[in-house]
Amino acid sequence: MTHTARLFIGLTPPPTVRQQLVAARDQAHTQFGGKAVPEANLHLTLAFLGQTPLVRIAELSTLIDQCGFMAMTLQLATIGSFSRANVVWAGLSARHIVLDGLATRLCQTLQQHHFSIDTQGFNAHVTLLRKAICPAHVLTPAINWRASQLSLYESRSTPDGVEYQVLHRVISHT
Ligand code: 2AM
User: Fold this and answer.
1) What is the ipTM of this complex?
2) Cβ(86) – ligand 1 distance below 6 Å
3) 77-107, pLDDT tens digit by residue?
4) How far apart are the first and last CA of the chain?
5) Which of 37, 66, 100, 115 is most buried, judged by most C-beta within 10 A?
């Protein structure tokens, strides 16, 4: 039997940004209902790998170290939803070339190394609510996020819901 873990790579918000995301989440929850994403789970997914052999985690961590991650500033200024996935999210006001480049680079590198990866187009967002949808609107106040932590996460199902554990991180101080 191959032992696997459900993995993804994402940006981890610092505590100050997390608090602002919680405020935006609570405001959206009051308006649109659904199920609030726990504060500890708030993140921005860059690449979703799904079930991955545990023996490949060290190799994956090295590839993440080598992907050239540099801290970047993101402005979350919109609230919107994916109606098919039934989630409400906070998103960017415009495409972010550096962020898009990082997602593309990660995806290409992982594919070159034969990791199976979800290749649906990258659409940067932080999921705030599940089982809810809403019309697109402006997030006020906007959230300025100096994104300096890139993480390899394991997603685990527990009786209390899904939990994300950081298995590896890259911190950029630039
Ligand atoms: P989300 O970013 O919209 O919340 C762990 O499941 C994380 O990976 C979640 O943040 C989830 O969606 C994201 N994700 C991206 N592609 C996924 C996929 N094909 N299946 C499950 N989760 C996916």
Assistant:
1) 0.91
2) no
3) 999 999 999 999 999 989 999 999 999 999 9
4) 43
5) 37
